[in-house]
Input
Amino acid sequence: MASVPTELSKARAEKPLLAVLKGERRDPVPTWMMRQAGRYLPEYRQLRHDRGSFLELVYDSDAAARITLQPLERFPEIDAAILFSDILIVPFAIGQNLTFVAGEGPRLTPPLTSANLDDLTPFLTRLEPIYETVAKVRAQLGEGKTLIGFAGSPWTVATYMVAGQGSRDQSEARRLAYADNERFGEIIARIEHVTVEYLSCQIDAGAEAVQLFDSWAGSLSPAQFEQWVIAPTARIVAALRERHAGVPVIGFPKGAGGKLSAYARETAVSALGLDETVDPCWAASELPKDLPLQGNLDPLALVAGGEVLETAVGRVLDAFVDRPHIFNLGHGILQDTPIEHVGELIALVKGAR
Ligand code: CP3
Output
């Protein structure tokens, strides 16, 4: 007679990363790395070289699915695949032109310092190939592995849309937010609207969790952080929850520091990504005990490897030992990371207990 699964075995049937995102502690801790599909991998560089352009890879859903899965093929213990795409696909769909200039980074034209939203012709079909990638990855994903979808947060995406490129201190967007609160609010609202649709369609296509990358959350004063980071994020989380109850949303407000507690409380994200400047002992004691935390190894400790890496990994694991934790870096993996160090990292995390 077939045995009735116990509560425990049913719970264990949940994928490790999803279980932690829903508030469980798992040992060994599930792990993935931000920007894990990319230039530190020779197999990515080869494809990138053969095909010539980053956007061409993003818009070829077979190639993008292959790239998404590359890190898991090389490192089968990684628990999640993150969709291979970019946060700037949203401005591209809103109607800016997007190019990646070799050695200089992304360019969006016209920048919103010199153009209005109304001057842009939206091309929402520019999002559709991304959903094909999601579906293709999901169909090929190994057992127990989770597929993470993502978007940039409205604030971070707005910094690129306004300046037309990356900038050191996001000053164009910050200046516009002060000079013309209403116009800046309209830009944020437009991004927010498209982002909800975009993430919702990624979930429909097979993404099992989504992450909001807020790479420039750290550049705002507290009142501006409330208005341009917390409020739009809270609205996105609420809208997604209404449409997709049970699909976790990870918030990653890089550089938020002392504003992390307010962010966690007011946005109601399912899990919080921590950058490497956050003291994990502070986070473990100050952030709600049941809130899953993700992070936060310094990507440079991974470049260093050896004892430096071992010590740094131990610090992170120890600090979060009695709460739901997903091991990750504090920011994206750096291009010059020796691949063997990634193997060492995974062995340290997975062999910890
Ligand atoms: O995590 C992953 O592996 C999934 C794919 C992913 C990419 N970009 C691929 C990419 C993700 C999640 C991103 C997020 C992203 N993109 C962010 C937020 C996270 C962060 O790192 O702060 C930001 C700010 C961007 C914008 C962006 N895209 C920049 C500034 C650049 C150029 C600089 C750089 O890192 O190369 C990109 C290009 C980009 N996005 C590449 C990749 C693999 C490199 C493209 C190439 O092959 O030349």
In short: Residues 32-296 form a domain with the TIM Barrel fold (CATH 3.20.20.210). The first helix runs from residue 7 to 12. The pocket of coproporphyrinogen III is lined by residues 34-39, 48, 54, 82, 84-88, 100, 105-106, 150, 166, 213, 215, 332 (CB under 6 Å).
